[in-house]
Amino acid sequence: MDSGTSTGAGENSGNENKSIIVVGAGLAGSLLAVYLAKRGYKVDVYERREDIRTAEIVEGRSINLALSTRGLTALEKAGMGHIGRQLGTPMYGRIIHAQEEDPKLQFQQYGVDPKQHLMSISRTVLNERLITAAEEYPLVKFHFKHRCLKTDFAKTSIQFLNEETGETVTATADVILGSDGAYSSVRAALQKTQYFNFSQYFLDHAYKELTLSPAADGSYQLPSNGLHIWPRENFMLIGLPNLDKSFTITLFMPVKMFESLQTKEDVRRFFSIYFPDALRLMPNVPDQYFANPTGSLVWIKCDPHHKDHVAILGDAAHAMVPFYGQGMNCCFEDVRVLDELLEKYNDDWDQVLPALTATRTKNTDAICQLSYRNYKEMSSHVSHADYLLRKKFDTMMNYFFPASWIPLYSMVTFSNIPYSEVIERSEWQDRVVGKIKTAAPVVALGAASLLALYFPRSRAFVRQALTNLADRL
Amino acid sequence: MDSGTSTGAGENSGNENKSIIVVGAGLAGSLLAVYLAKRGYKVDVYERREDIRTAEIVEGRSINLALSTRGLTALEKAGMGHIGRQLGTPMYGRIIHAQEEDPKLQFQQYGVDPKQHLMSISRTVLNERLITAAEEYPLVKFHFKHRCLKTDFAKTSIQFLNEETGETVTATADVILGSDGAYSSVRAALQKTQYFNFSQYFLDHAYKELTLSPAADGSYQLPSNGLHIWPRENFMLIGLPNLDKSFTITLFMPVKMFESLQTKEDVRRFFSIYFPDALRLMPNVPDQYFANPTGSLVWIKCDPHHKDHVAILGDAAHAMVPFYGQGMNCCFEDVRVLDELLEKYNDDWDQVLPALTATRTKNTDAICQLSYRNYKEMSSHVSHADYLLRKKFDTMMNYFFPASWIPLYSMVTFSNIPYSEVIERSEWQDRVVGKIKTAAPVVALGAASLLALYFPRSRAFVRQALTNLADRL
């Protein structure tokens, strides 16, 4: 086990009499339990579903996720970096599929350093490992099949329905943390209080997950070193490798397009036109299409993230669309930041929770925005010349100014720079690029004139260059 | 009773077997009951509170409202225009109070026609009259003290808790209409369904209502022919006349300012600095300040306004801040538009409800936006020279182009032009004004040059004029 950097198991002896209720044993909730137990809190985690480690069918949500720097940093700080590294398949770039029978795949490296990568990781396996890790602490107890009914802010208590026994139980603690997902019950209670700003916005695009099985010889059917994208302007297919050599393929497209595909023949025809190479590898797509559910994409934001001694973290506070692969990474960052605030304020929750709201609302708003904007980038821009040119330019600038010029994608994915600062820095870079674009023809013109003036023999070349420039303007 | 224009009592014989549940017996709900009964529907209105006509204390919400054209149009169409006209006090303009001991009041006419006016009307009295009017129809039944618990979209049924008996009752109907206010239970159920976009945003300003009693001789203490405003940039006091010769005075200011006034002496000092004339007329303000609650200001919007056979109207669908005096007017317009759609689609609710969403979401979004923007206008602009100049310009333009140039305020208040069209037209007018502002100096310069050229003796005058112009640029 890695060693935690700032917290050791049970080292924080001032908290042993303090109890915390965590609502939701998903990725954020189970990591939260580990962090809190390390600080010496007694932690009770209540989860609506049954224990996913013993469940026959695991409900809902996407199959695999892209773990990157922020997520890994939070795992490492809790001494669990190895989990992220062992369970994932590294993806070093995007692999673009043109709309052809047998496209030549185009690899676009993610980082400025070829070694930088995301890890494609199974949500369920990661979650199971985190629950098990949390359970190893005697201070942590999981209560499955408990549905949250009511939150009482004044008493810091919460009522659950034990769905196995039918009993209603009321639990009280020093602090309640709701990490109960995009449709959070704890947030629903907050929403009924005054001065709670909230919005939920559904995209008119939806998604459907499909499986690309391993080849007959048990190997991957596509290169496994990247995230596959079939960009088709207003819709796209993406593919992430799994450890079992399959790929999880996700179709993102407008709800209306999903509705327009009514028969298996419709689906087969649609794939044969837009994704012919994917159809060849997944001939059973028409069957999968109707067997698998269509998921909606929602963007939720709210402010504050707490009231009294109740706070929300993870998707409960900021569900985002998946186009930046930051959903889980941001949830894990929430937990790490909460831990840093506990450290800073000596576990004084009266200071910690307002500070959590102050820093997380602006940063999670920022990543929600970036994720929304990135749909266009993934589904369309990645195949445009302008985009590739800018990517080259960013790489060059980063080579000369490694600390101050980091491409937007790298700041989000391969750094722990606060998201709101990422937006500011990226807007500054865009302004610089804009100015260069405006200034470049003028500088070129001046240089050409000088050249023509002092080196008469270069005039033919200069004339040609100016003609080219004029054509471009 | 006025005669309804398109619907007569019980005339619509095709609907007699159809039943409708209305949730909420506020202004929108009780008017809705009248309209639906006129179309021949069996209507059950469920209301959480007790009957306000017999209640000793009526909970919550602002005391008086400004009824204007949209509200009156909807009342008239239901044959109840007389209610609006009898119960209100006409207000022909704004009456501005400068920050002085004994300010000279400045009257700013509302309309382009001096006869155009709003009616200051009591919420409670109006609501009582509407409930009584609805109850006159045998088809309408009110159920008070029924709290809405659960809405079932598939069954078009809804569960209530009878708070008198403690019984739970489930009511089923052909259609459920939720007019249960800003904190709507019906909307809360909608919010849990997919593809329901929703946001609630609290202003950092709040409000507190105060009463300015009649004079000792039973007369008004201030002129009653207008809406009084004490604009103080970031906060303000407004006053609306009541039939009993009192005024309802409302203080709007940042929550933090409310919190900073902690003692009666603080309040007295605050009023003596900013509202000295109001304090002289209301010496008991410090007592009232601590006796009366501070209300929050919320902006709620959502899309769609329906699902299956359940829809929401009024504040449930679009709570707005009160700065355009359009809350009630917009609610009443919802009801009138619903009636027009029922007429258009022959009471086919499968067509009516999607059409209601299509038209009302964009129009209610528009008035919510306008209301939000109008805070600056009321609390600040009304006392600025630029604003008064633009008002004069608009009046002049309207004189020449009465149909195409209507000031924004008049379109909102004295017309039934759809709110979204109001915004478009007002933006066009602003663009024209912008162009005139840009062009005016050029035109003036040209005219001055011609003048100087052809009439040498005018040169001194022209020189002076140009110097003045230069000073302004």
From TrEMBL, chains A, B:
Instruction: Look up the record and name the pathway of this protein.
Output: Cofactor biosynthesis; NAD(+) biosynthesis; quinolinate from L-kynurenine: step 1/3
Query: Which cofactors does this gene product need?
Result: FAD
Q: Which residues cross the membrane?
A: 20-37, 399-419, 439-456
From the UniProt record, report the name of the gene that encodes this protein. KMO
Outline the extent of the FAD-binding domain.
Answer: 20-193, 302-340
Write down what this protein is called.
Answer: Kynurenine 3-monooxygenase
EC supergroup of this enzyme:
oxidoreductase
Its annotated compartments are:
Mitochondrion
Under catalytic activity, the entry for this protein gives:
L-kynurenine + NADPH + O2 + H(+) = 3-hydroxy-L-kynurenine + NADP(+) + H2O
EC number(s) for this protein? 1.14.13.9
Q: What is its main location?
A: mitochondrion
Q: Does the keyword Membrane apply?
A: yes
What UniProt keywords apply to this chain's record, in alphabetical order? FAD, Flavoprotein, Membrane, Mitochondrion, Monooxygenase, NADP, Oxidoreductase, Pyridine nucleotide biosynthesis, Transmembrane, Transmembrane helix
Q: Oxidoreductase among the record's keywords?
A: yes
Question: Which molecular function term from Gene Ontology is one that the record holds?
Answer: kynurenine 3-monooxygenase activity
- Described purpose of this protein according to its UniProt entry: Catalyzes the hydroxylation of L-kynurenine (L-Kyn) to form 3-hydroxy-L-kynurenine (L-3OHKyn). Required for synthesis of quinolinic acid.
A Gene Ontology biological process in which this protein takes part is:
kynurenine metabolic process
InterPro entries per the record?
Answer: FAD-bd, FAD/NAD-bd_sf, Kynurenine_monooxygenase
Question: Which Pfam families does this one have?
Answer: FAD_binding_3
Q: Which GO terms describe its cellular component?
A: mitochondrial outer membrane
**Which organism was this protein described from?**
Acanthamoeba castellanii (strain ATCC 30010 / Neff)
Extract the PANTHER family matched here.
Answer: KYNURENINE 3-MONOOXYGENASE (PTHR46028:SF2)
Q: Which family does it belong to?
A: Belongs to the aromatic-ring hydroxylase family. KMO subfamily.
